[in-house]
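I am writing to request your help with a piece of structural work I have in hand. Thank you for your consideration; the sequence and its tokens are set out here:
=====
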Amino acid sequence: MLIVEKYPRSEAVKTSDNEQTAQKALHVAKKLFEEQHYSEALLQAKSCLNLSRGEDSKLLTAQGHLLCSRCYAVLEQLPQTLHHAEHAQEIFTQLGDDSGHAEACSSAASVLLSHSKFREAQEYLSGALRSYEAAGNVPSVARTLHRLGRLYRGIEQYDLALEFFERSYNTAQKIASNKLEMETLTEIGLLALQRRQYDNAIQSFTMCLALQRKQQYRQGEAPFYRYIGRVLIARGQCTDALDYLRKSLALYRFARNDREEGICLRWIGEAFERRGEGEMALKTYRRAILALRSANDQIEMTRCLVSVARLQIRIGRPQSALPYITRAEVAAGTQGPKTILAAAKKVRAAACRALHRYEEALLAMREYHKLHRENERSDADRRSRNLQVYHELEQIRKTAEIEQGKNAQLELKKRELEHLHHLLQGLSESRSRFLTIAARDLKTPLSSIVGHASYLQNSSEQRCDAEAKQRLQDIERTAFRMTETVTDILNSNALESRGRILRPELLDVGDLLRSVLAAGSLPAQGQGVTLQQRYSGRPLPLKVDASVLRQIVELLISNILNLANNGSCLAVDAKLQAECVEIIIVLKPAAPATEHLQADESSQPEQTIANCNAADGKDPTVGTAAGPNLKLLMARQLAALIDAVLSSHYAPDGSLKYLVRIARPSGD
């Protein structure tokens, strides 16, 4: 339905058909990959990519790139693998698919490991490990840890390799994966054998053998019997080693595995050789050579030839050793490693010395020393490269740990802020409930006061004198103003809880001043102060918050009345300027100013309580721009009022002058 709405009908049908065809191609490619037909799977995956274009087929495109990278990884084509893996990672990251991102990293790491690019492989494997952990894929986490252990073993960092293997083994134990447990224990045992920790090696291989027996598959026990036999030979327990090696040999013969049979026979021959049974060792070595020749394993066959030649010299047959040495040199010179060729040269030198051919022995020893020096240099270069790669990997790992620590701290701070936010929300809700209840409790008696005052005023018009009527009117007006104040409190509470929006109203400043001065007339008369209203008669419209402006002027006048003496005159004037409305309040006292007041004559003649920049037409102090927090506005006005009263200035004529300047926005 979405496709039909987005495209014309013909294009929508075509797009839908392409997606279905792409899904079928991807399904076929996965089946071919499982059947190990990698070239055909690659063609189907590429056809899937050609058909799955557009934003609606992102997942299909990512899966196609992932399968292409896996096929290229098996075919060991590094650039193509990395190209498709990077595309798959990018799309899976956009989709938030951790498992797909980890699979793409894993396929790239496999081909990088095969090309001995350990630093790049470690970056991909670390990314795969984080993604698998985020996705909660514990079996894949165990396999990735196993691969990291093999990586560090490849650069000869055996301690780190052992650490990752142990982590992989512990993770595999949690998910009861016998296969992964055996693979990891085998790696641990081989590491222990390489480091001559024979007890640990035997323990690891024995555990592997116990796990293999649980699966009731006898053929799988053969390599572990052979590994235990190798460890026992290294420890000098050749009789016990022969028992394990014969069990392994019987299983390999039953499985018709010539290569493994030949390797097992070579180790049996070495056990016989160490026991001093030279003829049995020769017979076993020859059988091993025949098995390895049929398996076409030239390297292992060359090792057997060198072992036979060495044994022939040891038992006093140097002439019989020369044909084996020649065959070993030919095989090692074509495709064998230089270490085997160097061993063959050393054995030839020993045979020539035994035959008193000192010229040939000297020549062979020179060739041996030359090869030995080359091997040492290559080993030193390899160790240097491995050490450099190790330092780079350590730097990457430390950087990753620092980033993880920072992320953990940020996550902790985020949780703390969320907790504080919830607490503040609770406090705000409690305060809002309190204000609502208090305001409504105040509004009820105030409404009753207004009603009773109105009733008394209307029912006793004939009997009340002018002063009583004036007082009733003042009571009604004051109660009404208090009701409005309570309403403003309710409105401010709703504003802070986002229940309503504060919108300033358009009012006439003159009318507002008249009502304020009328309310203050009785207190002024009671203190013997004369109120004068000198504002102009024309309207002074202004768009402000009426309640805040009224409160400012009322508080200011009440404070001035407290400072005034009998006979003082309080004059209030409002002027309309170009950019603002000015409310000027002047108090002329009856008595002359004191010395303290005259000492302030150096001050400015006007005290500005609220001054707003008229360029943007906003007044943060009185709410001309509908500020979001009425409480903050009132607090600012009150602070300005206190500042005005405490730092008030007397003019030379003894008058006390205040100024309220309110911005007049354009268009009002």
Summary: The CA atoms of residues 229 and 241 lie 4 Å apart. Strands lie at 505-508, 530-533, 541-544, 569-576, 580-588, 656-663. The mean pLDDT is 76. The radius of gyration is 48 Å.
